[in-house]
Amino acid sequence: MLHEILFKDTKTGATIVSFGSGRVALKISGTWNKYYIDLYKNHGCTFVWIQSRDGSDSLENVIREQLSNELQLMGRFTNLHLVEQADFLRTLTLQLTTRSTLNLSNLRLESLRTSAAHIKLISRLPKPLRYLMLSEYNEADFHSLSYLAQLEGLELGPARKLASFEGLSKLTEITTLAVWYAPHLFNIAELRACKKLEELKFNHCKAIGSVEVLGGITSLKKIHLNNCGIIKSLRPLGHLNRVEEILFTEDTIITDGAIRQLASISSLQTVLFKNRRHYDIARENLLERS
Questions:
Q1: H or E element that contains 71
Q2: pLDDT lower than 50: segments of the chain
Q3: Which residue, of 12, 60, 73, 147, has the greatest Cβ tally within 10 A?
Q4: C-alpha dihedral, 142 to 148 to 153 to 157, nearest 10°
């Protein structure tokens, strides 16, 4: 996680760090006691970042003080159940080394980053969620998430059992969708219902085969098809007049080789792909416009 040190406390060695976009945290080594809590409050910090080496007492103190509506936990904690009642939280990131599972259904979270392995019931996540990033997603489709009607951003992966986008059609507010390491994903037809989708990113999804459905999603601005094996054709993308970026890198191969037609997309600014003998134009020549 990239960050910039803004301040270092000479007494304890604690640092105030910036993660960009106005996100400022206090990084310490030890338990979050009154001294650190005051340090946090006095330096304009915006979110709490606790590593397990700081001790479970830190989690208890921070939640009791309700320091911030954004909390990030890394490592192992013996009192994770305290998070289940922290209804003041709006953003939660869990990078845990424990097998503990949480029931987050009573929270009013708007953003959640975690592994599905730490969620007791995927079907009972907080309904106000607008952004969700789940690793180790072990469902075959999107039905277990289809109740999250306000969701705008969704990232899943690894998603080794995901085979179909069935259920996605109910997530009509989605603007960004990323799926990686989903080797069995082949049915993406319900993407056509995502009329607000602007960014679509596939990585290591080698069973997709066709992007025909994308031709009807005129809101798209970014399309990534990286490490996706054999794709029949990119011709369906030729009529998308808002696309600014198309990537099909690594082992992605466009079977018909018809790459030149992408140059007709006037909004296109960035195209990245590996030059191949059967492609009708080289990458470096594609966007040469007179």
A1: strand 70-75
A2: 290
A3: 73
A4: -40
- Among candidates 159, 272, 277, which has minimal Cα distance to 222? 272
> What pTM was computed for the model?
0.94
Nearest to 89 by CA among 58, 65, 121, 54: 65
Q: What is the predicted pLDDT for the residue at 52?
A: 80
pLDDT (0 to 100) of residue 100 = 85
Both tokens assigned to 263: 């140059």
> What is the SS3 assignment for 117-176?
HHECCHHHCCCCCCEEEEECCCCCCCHHHCCCCCCCEEEECCCCCCCECCCHHHCCCCCE
Are residues 52 and 29 in contact, defined by beta-carbon separation less than 8 angstroms?
no
pLDDT tens-digit series, residues 31-42: 999 999 999 999
Q: Give helix then strand counts, H and E, for the chain.
A: 3, 16
Domains belonging to the chain, first-starting first, are: 1-129 (no CATH), 132-290 (3.80.10.10)
CA angle (64 as vertex; 45, 87 as ends), nearest 5: 85
**Which residue matches tokens 């959640």?**
112
Task: Enumerate the H helices of the chain as residue ranges.
Answer: 34-42, 56-65, 283-286
Alpha-carbon span 167 to 163, nearest angstrom: 12
Nearest to 259, CA basis, from 227, 290, 284: 284
Q: Give the three-class secondary structure for 51.
A: strand
Beta bridge partner(s), residue 131: 111, 153
Q: Are 62 and 48 in contact (CB under 8 A)?
A: yes
